[in-house]
Design brief:
The structure is a single chain. The chain is about 50% helix and about 15% strand. With about 90 residues, the chain is of the alpha+beta class. It has two domains: about 60 residues; about 30 residues. The strands form two sheets. It has a three-stranded antiparallel beta sheet with strand order 4-1-5. A hairpin with a 2-residue loop joins strand 2 and strand 3.
């Protein structure tokens, strides 16, 4: 997965930090990787880049394992819905 580390302009418009991109969509892709404007996020360096984007830009980059990310989102949503339901029943 490739993520924009530093914003830059392309013929399609502005690519902001934290955006996921495809190599074929960017002209001069290799040059932008050399300039550290784009980084490749792999399983081995995911935590490093996740913490970097969270600290600097307050952006959560998606997990490399979409199943675990979806499961986490569903669990969070279900817990929130359950808490709201329980609070409503307690007040009533």
């Amino acid at each position: 997965m490739f993520v924009v580390r530093q914003s830059f302009r392309t013929t399609d418009g502005l690519k902001s930090a934290g955006s996921l991109i495809e190599p074929a969509d960017i002209k001069g892709f290799k040059a932008r990787i050399r300039d550290n404007k784009i980084v490749e996020v792999t399983e081995s360096n995911y935590e490093r880049w996740h913490n970097f984007f969270l600290a600097r830009y307050k952006i959560h980059i998606p997990s490399l394992n979409p199943a675990s990310s979806l499961e986490t989102d569903l669990n969070t949503t279900l817990k929130t819905d359950l808490n709201v339901t329980l609070k409503a029943k307690v007040k009533a």
